[in-house]
Design a protein that fits this description.
mainly alpha; Leucine-rich Repeat Variant; single chain; elongated
Length: 293
Amino acid sequence: MKNGSTLRTTKSTLAFNILNADAALAVIKSATTADVEALVQLLKHENSEVRKTSAKELANIGPTVKEVIPALIQALEYEKYGVPSDAAKALAEIGPEAKDAVPILIQLLEHLDTGIRIDSIRALAEIGSEAKNAVPPLVQLLGDQDVHVRRSAIQALQQIDIERLEVVETLIYLLGHWDVGIREDAIRALGEIGANAVSSLIQLSEHDNINTRSRSIEALSKIGPEAKAAVPVLIQLSTNENSGVRIDAVKALAEIGPAAKEAAPVLRQLLEHLNSDIRQNASIALGKIEPES
């Protein structure tokens, strides 16, 4: 281990060298514990370029030097100059091996600085399944006032553990969000879950809240043929006393297509319904379920 004087020299040299690509590569290839300590100190440098490049260097060195991850975790708690953001970005680059940072990254989800919150979310996303403890607070962030925080949270949940009922329920709620970007992200997320979301959506399609019910059925429509397991419930809902629920259910059966062939008898009955919208949608659904009939 180098003494204090040598470490200061190392820091001074690194502060100059890390802004030079060739010198930076040399630092990565021959990194020592002292270099890591110096780079961590440079995360607190007043020059933003030095800070950002130091974070990148630490990410590139990664867990090959065992002190890197603990040092970055410690840097998450440094409040000046947006250091937590730079440290979080470095941890994101390291990925699953940075799992020890999860508890502090979860704490930073409540930080007043939006940028720090977003970078912490992205770090948790890159850590992936090792960050499952972050799912409940990430679900809460789906209701955050900042649109970028909400979208980052959706993307993080996609990478961590999106199949939980609480996540699916929140995504369904977001299908009715005023922001089109949020709606599209929620639809995309539900589509990526695919068949794995169906059991949760079946439960939610029978929810007491009419909006939750309608959006759950809409989500089943987006999943399409992979939502085959929902057909019995959708058949039942297609005779619901609420005409809106009926139409939503019939539309979902249409999107499931031939895999929903057991719904054909009920749909034929609906061709005689007094409500013209129900008749029309039943006809469309039959055309998709029995295209050769």
